[in-house]
Amino acid sequence: MQNKFAWIMTPDLPWDDRKEMITTALESGISYVLDLEYSDKIRKLGNVNIISNEDDADIYLVGIGGEGDGAIDLSENLSDSIDLANAKKAKSEGKTVCAYIKITDKLHEQLAVKLGPIVDYIILIGTDWTVIPLENIIADLQKVDVEIIAAVNDSEGAKLALETLEHGTDGVIFEANDFAQIKDIASEVDNASKVNYDLKIATVTNVKPLGSGDRVCVDTTDMMKPGEGMLIGSYSKSLFLVHSESLESEYVASRPFRVNAGPVQAYVMVPGNKTRYLSELVAGDEVLIVNTKGETRTAYVGRSKIERRPLILIEAEYEGKTIRTLLQNAETIRIVDADDKPLSVADVKPGDKVKVYIEKSARHFGIAIDETIIEQ
């Protein structure tokens, strides 16, 4: 599942009231604002992306004051559409373009499908709303590189839109008119973006201390709890659950924001069911925090720290397949056993049962694909 997102439309209120709603949205992680009046003032509130019909908008909007909102009658010959012409012109000028369409009839549904291959985003507004037009448009545009956004009023509407036809819309947009509403919808979007990984139990077959290598510590901007860590391994298809440094130790103080992850060439799972090399991670990158149940959440890298440290090789077997990872050889470095308990690499031995994630697909540049790739 991909990361879902939320945008807000500012309410028809005086600036001071709009400002409060926008500030609450920013605090809730929503940084895209559709506003046709106060873009200069909004930019002063923070790092905000403005969606409007002004030339300097971050995302140029077509459809408001056009056929999309019904201000202009839509011809049955969609090739004559003014919104379609405006979208093509804006794209030719190098703009990021969003189409705004009220789905009042089948013809407007067809306009959305016609605009899909041209624009970057489509906002769909339901009037006498049923989920059927949304299902139709998602189905018609499933292979088109466009982000579909449904207008909703509350968290229930957001949940429905984000789950329609299993894939759901890419995002939701709503008129921000209540503090609780903003936080509830932001929370629903966050929940819809989470992926659960089906962790398997593998049997350790070999443990071998090695010499020194360049090891990466990943410090995040989140505090991890016991039972949380990251999926890391030498093979992109086979990753171990490496525990965070959230436990107290007689050797060092806990660092609950940190995963002592492994050598520079190891893979780590990141949002979007993708992997990255540990050596690639820099401040501001996203990583996936995973708990013992396979539940996930996204965190940002605060920094990654590469140091020369002694390493240890751990091999395990799952259904006849051998998987491997290298970790720093230190008492405070832990993987997770079959009982969801942290297991220090200093204590791990052949026969131990540990939690791993096995990907069926191969990966190319970190993306899962149907291809035969042998990793050993």
TrEMBL record:
- Does the keyword field hold Metal-binding? no
* A molecular function GO annotation: 3-dehydroquinate synthase activity
Enzyme Commission number, as recorded = 1.4.1.24
Segments forming domain 3-dehydroquinate synthase N-terminal: 3-186
Record-annotated 3-dehydroquinate synthase C-terminal domain positions: 202-376
Entry function: Catalyzes the oxidative deamination and cyclization of 2-amino-3,7-dideoxy-D-threo-hept-6-ulosonic acid (ADH) to yield 3-dehydroquinate (DHQ), which is fed into the canonical shikimic pathway of aromatic amino acid biosynthesis.
Tell me which NCBIfam families the record gives.
PRK02290.1-4
Q: What is this protein called?
A: 3-dehydroquinate synthase
Q: Which organism is it from?
A: Methanobrevibacter millerae
List the lineage, top down: Archaea, Methanobacteriati, Methanobacteriota, Methanomada group, Methanobacteria
